[in-house]
């Protein structure tokens, strides 16, 4: 049967196991404030028994494992919801930044400036030959055009900022995926499967950051490697020990950044597949949200140019001559902007293409809107009178003033509406989206906070629990030391008695 020497090894195993477990407790306590750290638990198991005759004798205790306490399902939930949270945060911040400018209800607001412009025609109708009223009308027209273009440029600046951010975010995504792939390699080659807890914590922290940048799906293979794809599944970001970069390339000279996945030398377009995270939000802002507000301003500008120009072309100037020219012209080409052509104007003056479906042709109308320089040089050319009217006729001025309340003045693509309704729709849309993204942001923040609190309750370090574990292990260490002391005394007595 085992003797006193074997008993010494029993006590020694106890000392070593308790000390190793105390080291795990100390590691937990040292990392109590380390972001992303997962508490570890020492696994103690009895040593393999030895047989003497028909009796099995224990051989002490060993430290069999150091296990990180984590919930993989919670991690996956947090990755998914974090992407939605950062996406909502980015959208809310951008829309809120333009809300005060586009939603301005004061004298510099869109509604007030359009109203002042049409009021200028109304005022001119009271004294059609007044040079002062004609000059005032032109000033109000220019203020309205400047106001529209300033707000349009604000949206364009926001789009430019979003586009510039995309390149930096793509570089950050590629850096993170490369680091995750390297940790995959470290984990897959660990001596004991599941033992490198600190590497797994580092990978989890990096994946949390990646989820904040782009929506992802994460799966863990049998050997512990993360396999990461875009949440749409259209591209792989990390597979085993390899990472596949996103590539940002401009679509032509001065074009916007478009994204592709470099699938081992083959570029796969993914711009439209990225919906969440900061990167998805920037793409959505640049390509959809801000463009939508610009489109509404373009529709209003097209309505102004189309309706006013059609009436002005057929009216009479102060000297009784037929005007034949628009109130608004494109400065670079001197063409009438009433035809609603996109970006540049090359066609001769034409009538407004009216009716649902034509709104897509109005892109860039705000920036094309320019008060006719000929009228600015000679306000008497403003066509306040109608053909056949007597001297001092004001019917064309009244006709143009009435466009303010024309329910079919603005083509929205699906229907027609008046200027007041079009501006109100823009402000309402802006306010609705601002509140919607704010609500989404708050809801996602609360959800992610709740999930993180749940994860912390499972994986986080609890100092009270660690103190209790430390006391238990301390007692175990002291008991093992006392056991060795007793065996040592027995050995000493045995040696001394036999030595007499």
Please give a quick description of this structure.
With 500 residues, this protein is of the alpha+beta class. Helices cover 56% and strands 12% of the residues.
Mean pLDDT: 86
- Our estimate of the beta-strand percent is 5-15%
**Helix share, percent:** 55-70%
Record field, number of beta strands: 15
SSE order, one letter for each helix or strand: HEEEEHHHHEEEEEEEHEHHEHEEHH
Largest sheet: 4 strands, antiparallel
Structural class: alpha+beta
| Shape type | rod-shaped
For the largest beta sheet, what order do the strands appear in spatially? Answer: 5-6-7-8
Task: Please report the number of helical segments.
Answer: 11
Which stretches are poorly predicted, pLDDT < 50 over at least 5 residues?
338-359
Number of domains: 2
Radius of gyration: 38 Å
| Gap between N and C termini | 26 Å
Describe this structure in words.
This protein is of the alpha+beta class and 500 residues long. The protein has 2 domains: 4-69 and 462-498, no CATH class; 72-459, no CATH class. Helices cover 56% and strands 12% of the residues. The chain has 11 helices and 15 strands. A 4-stranded antiparallel β-sheet has the order 5-6-7-8. Helix 3 runs antiparallel to helix 4 (131-188), helix 4 runs antiparallel to helix 6 and helix 6 runs antiparallel to helix 10. The longest helix has 58 residues, at 131-188. It is rod-shaped and about 145 Å long.
